[in-house]
Protein: Cytosol non-specific dipeptidase
Organism: Cetobacterium somerae ATCC BAA-474
Amino acid sequence: MRKLKKLQPERVFYYFEEISKIPRESYQEKAISDYIIDFGRKLGLETYQDASYNVFLRKKASLGYESSPGIIIQGHLDMIWEKEDDSLHDFSKDSIDLIIDGNKLKANKTTLGADNGIAIAIAMAILEDDSFEHGPLEFLGTTSEEVDLGGALTIDSEILKGSMLINLDSEDESIITVGSAGGIELDITLPITKVYEDLSFSWSIEVKNLSGGHSGVEIHKKKGNANKIISEILSNINFEEEIFLVEISGGSKDNAIPRNASATISSKKDISMTIKNSINKILEKYRSFELNIQVEMIVLDTITKVIDKESFKNYLGLIKNMPTGVNTWIKEYPDIVESSDNLAIVKTSVDSIEIIVSLRSSEVNILKELQDKIINIVEEFGANFKFSAGYPEWRFNSISNLTVFGQEFSHLFRW
């Protein structure tokens, strides 16, 4: 039974519901790619699928419009797989459980996949519709956008014939994207040494149920970062009592604001009340905007093999000084983020604490300034770093043909 049957435009939401049945995490897009290619072949469109599972569909111009400028509609095929802690959803095989909540479309305890599933659905609805006249029309669907734009970087540009590209990478109805930030990932390695200490007590501290969100779309919203919060708790406890860090971890994806984090600590004496007091202070500080935040303390059997004190001190300093969130706003458009970073992932290995930070900016120079700022912090606390291959920004052009057209005829796109 179709859940979205009453939503308009009907065919857009028909296809959105269909693709929501297909698992499509980054690097696992073959099924959704095959589905779109099959769709195109059934319509008699020109189709192409490359080794990265990017898809390309071309529809001939309507009679009399053969010489019109070709339009490329573009979106990406992959989605982020994130779910709430108590969800039993298996992304590898389960359909997204869609829920209509008033005037909002949601998913049951998981990400929805509207970024960029709605672009796929819109493109499919347009391509099957023979009721309107148009010039040459193409759809380009790219892979691994959520991670590294890997699909887009492998495209053979000779396949594309259109002269104007409309990117539909937006979750907002009636919005056409006219610019995008570029980005790069910073991998930080803080060397540690494991030592044995004469300790008597150990605890696990867990930060849970933050609202999280996409670090590109929601970085400007007031959200807690679990990696920041767990380190803040440890700093508060360490200020009051001597503690030893056993391990720490948080976050799951470089493009998701971390919702959960945990740390294991040990001490020479029972400091349970100090831990509880620190937790209560954190809850009081963050509950005004993180309504579902939970912080739990769990008593463990004593662990005596811990991270050396100097490394622990460096870690706390590094995280405390590491920016996360909005760095700058665009001067001409003060409600639009110009640059940001996301303190995304922390994990402990045998000989290091590894940290992943995702940086974004629509301006190359601003991104470089943010990189240098973070590098200075990393080096100050004795950590090593390397940058992954970045992806380019797409700068807004206020005088492009598409931008002018969109401003003049924006009323036509409202459903």
